[in-house]
Design a protein that fits this description.
The protein has 180 residues and is an alpha/beta fold. 49% of the residues lie in helices and 14% in strands. The chain contains seven helices and five strands. The protein has a five-stranded parallel beta sheet. Helix 5 runs antiparallel to helix 6. The longest helix has 19 residues. The radius of gyration is 16 Å and the shape is globular.
Length: 180
């Protein structure tokens, strides 16, 4: 158990979770884990959402979250969990990690307009393995919803016209997070 904060950055692919997380983590002396750090082994070896993909992800998440549960350091984690069976399972794992850690848990949702999100998702600098197709993003926006946990106070930030460092500063300010 720790009293260190856990900030979970949620948002659609390309919204800026990784960029904001990279800026936020040093401000609060946190370990930063981008969701693709955890997902890439499955993306490299199996078709997205296939049985092997899910099996690999379960194993990776179980191992990594078990270690993070015992770490007495702030944590910033990014994800895009949608209200699907797999998304709900993954969100339950995040909640279990938060409960095991015992410190303050903050769900932070990064929002931007669909037009800006589609522009960002197609940027050539997006890493291999990340969604880069605006059409798939638009379909996801139309057909799925992000998991917003009604049991939590959810902090939403519109990042359409803000920089990652400004968003990270705003998160620190709103959540009263200070570096130790």
């Amino acid at each position: 158990m720790t009293d260190a904060p856990f900030v979970h950055l949620m948002g659609w692919p390309g919204v800026g979770k990784h960029a904001v997380g990279q800026q936020l983590a040093p401000l609060i002396s946190a370990r930063y884990i981008d969701n693709h750090t955890l997902l890439n082994p499955a993306f490299a070896t199996a078709e997205h959402l296939s049985d092997p993909y899910i099996r690999i992800n379960r194993a990776v998440l179980s191992a990594v979250y078990a270690e993070l549960a015992n770490e007495d350091r702030p944590l910033v984690l990014t994800n895009c969990h949608t209200d699907t069976p797999w998304g709900r399972e993954c969100w339950a794992r995040v909640r279990a990690l938060a409960e095991a850690r015992g410190g303050p848990f903050h769900q932070v949702v990064l929002d931007c307009t669909l037009e800006e999100n589609a522009r960002r998702v197609a940027l050539p600098e997006r890493a291999r393995g990340k969604l880069r197709d605006p059409g798939i993003l638009r379909s996801a926006w139309a057909a799925k919803t992000l998991i917003i946990d009604p049991a939590l106070t959810v902090h939403r930030f519109d990042v359409t016209a803000t920089t990652p460092d400004a968003t990270a500063g705003a998160i620190c300010s709103r959540l009263h997070l200070l570096s130790k």
